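Need the bound structure for zinc ion, inputs here:
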Amino acid sequence: MEPPVPALHERASRAAAHLAAADSVRLVSHDDADGLTSAAIAGTALEWAGVEVMTEIKHGLDEDAIDELAAASTETVLFTDLGSGGLDRLAHHASTGQFTPIVVDHHQPVDASIEHFLNPRTVGLDGGRELAGAGTAYVLARAMADQIGAVEGDPRELAALAVVGAIGDRQTVEGELVGANQAIAAEGETAGMVESGTDLAVYGTQTRPLPKLLEYTSDVRIPGITGNRRGAIKFLEELPVPIKDGDRWPTWTELDPETRTTVASGLMTRAMERGVPSDRIERLVGTRYILAREEPGTQLRDASEFSTVLNATARYERSEIGLAVCRGDREEALEAALELLREHRMNLSKGIEWVVETGVRRESHVQWFHARSEIRDTIVGIVAGMVLGSDGIDRHRPIVGFADKLAGDGVKVSARAPGRLANRGIDLGQAMRVSATDVGGEGGGHSMAAGATVPAGQEPAFLAAVDDVIGAQLDG
Ligand code: C5P
Ligand code: ZN
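Answer from helper R.:
Posting the output first, comments after.
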């Protein structure tokens, strides 16, 4: 079989050879959907090689964590979906000769080198859009399968998890996976694990009853439907074909193809009539990635819903449950994960309600709220993103949410920008990094979604700095 990502093949083969020769390996991965799928893929590959694995899921990898790991490990530690930012520290410990780090990641690396480093960014690929941690781990797993000859099943079956990881990290371009991600998805299709096709690009097509599905089309706002349950029901009732099945609303996937077309074109017509720009209407359709071996109508059938299940476990410090689901547990772990998802949804709707009721304050360029302990610090970013579409919240201004940290000192900050600012030079990651550093904290992230931690009491100074930086970005 051809390697899935030729540019990484040689490095992957060398790392696989080292790992296959180890007796036991400590596996350290990131606590989000991409990190959990990365750990499941790498763990499976190590099992093929008969290597004993101990897995730890971490929120991040700071210098202290690296020092601790290096002191406690006398042999190989495999890092997935993290490690690139600590490469210098890892290199330092590797030079003692007692500790061998292997980093399989897609984040921006610092300037340092270790013997085994697998990262799309070092071979000219876009680690933000073309390959995530899980895809990079998949490259390693495929090299491992080559290394040891026969493995149980087809190694390309792991591509399904790689797709979930990429989708979890939002690595789509105009609604679909591209580059190495696309090559991996294609391998998953060949192995009978993944199916893809153009579909309504709204979250929850497998599990949400239609009115709820339409009510939450948050990415593309359709006036009178998005955020409006009655409007969504009225829209469905007025379509030329009956949708409701007795008193039960079906899910999108339960509709026959013709009815789906009717609903989709009805939505587009409505969006056009209400003046939604055509480039935004186009975003209502995209490529959907289905996990062919999962039960239809379940939370694991669709890659996007699967990644949400995993994130729900990670955000409540129950990553081991998400990892077990990735490793195939469809009983206890899945049940526990779905319970966490229900709690997560409830916490989100309580959080949104709190912000909408309490209201936000406006600065010159941003709006903000401080939830203290009303909203968990681990979900304040999602809440900030979701309230951007709510009544009483300005849809033109970035939003900054604060929440007290549950563990440790300081205040968690999350910033989100409304989609309409996408092409106006905004860079929340930079705004967070600069402003947090100014007040003795730390921050970073992407242009439309970023975060920070700042010392308690520094919120006003931080906010003033953010407002200035964003003002300058939007003017520039
Ligand atoms: O935590 P939150 O969801 O708001 O983070 C949004 C993005 O910002 C994430 O991609 C995260 O990795 C990044 N971030 C960061 N530094 C921080 C906090 C968040 O780079 N201190
Ligand atoms: Zn990742």
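Comments: The CA atoms of residues 25 and 53 lie 5 Å apart. The mean pLDDT is 94.
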